Known about the structure:
By secondary structure, the chain is an alpha+beta fold. The N terminus is likely disordered. The protein has 6 helices and 11 strands. The protein starts with 16 loop residues before the first strand and ends in a 5-residue tail after the last helix. A hairpin with a 5-residue loop joins strand 6 and strand 7. Strands 3, 4, 5, 6, 7, 8, 9, 10 and 11 form a 9-stranded antiparallel beta sheet that branches. The chain has a two-stranded antiparallel sheet with strand order 1-2.
Amino acid sequence: xxxxxxxxxxxGTGAGTQLLDHPWPSATQHHDAPYTDAQYAETSYEAPYxxxxxxxxxxxxxxxxxxxxxxxxxQPLDTPGESAPESADVNRHRMPRQxxxxxxxxxxxxxxxxxxxxxxxxATPAAAPAIAAPDEAPVSLxxxxxxxxxxxxxxxxxADSQRTAAEESARIQAAKEAEAKRAAQxxxxxxxxxxAEKAKLAAIKLPIADYELTAHYGQSASYxxxxxxxxxxxxxxxxxxxxxxxxxxTSAGWSGSYGYRIIQTLPDGTEIxxxxxxxxxxxxxxxxxxxxxxxxxxxxxxxxxxxxxxVRPGGGxxxxxxxxxxxxxxxP
Length: 332
């Protein structure tokens, strides 16, 4: 029995794309009503596709993607109030059916191809730019060191050790030289101080600061029993009398015609006599040049207050005091 089904294959479609037959509901039947047994029987797939193709009218065009399902291939759906088509074949449209073969679906293949060519390629992240490594000499990872480098390292180590030893030796030598120099400077300073002290002690000073010479050594007079044995420094009573040099006071007290007298012994043994004193301030002990030891007076055999000074080398006979002072750089 001939069927009024639509053709199984649309013109121009691939062999893998087929149409699925199904009845179209009548205008009076609700779109959601279930099919009857007769309708299912009419949609049997057992009829030869060749007979269907020869008996069926030309198939309408395949609806484009996005067109409302159920339209008459470009025609609007039935609307309420309109009468259904008179032809009985209107209710027997066929839906496209995809074959289980290897043929791709229409539309999906194109979409997949488009996405594969554009979207997928655009979604692939770009490769990061390569970073150029700085120019560096290749590092050798060989387990065997270069004998030449090892020898050079040993030589350098030995040279560094010798240089360090030389520097340490030089430092020690410099420290010794500096210490010796400091010791020499200290010794020189001590010697200079000692020499200065000796010079100070050896210095000779005049016994009175403000005076007048009234009698010289060797003069004669009626009031002297012998020639004058000293040098007279006339000054007022109480004028300070100082030691002429460093030495030791070996005698002090009353001495007849000399009145109150002080005898000082110098380091070389020379005795200095201080006579006719009014008072004695230092009777013993060591004294230094310029140290006060008494005061001018008029005691003993005198005609007025004055200081009579005698110089006796080695404690012997007196010598001219004026000449002795001049020999020590002093001019009375």
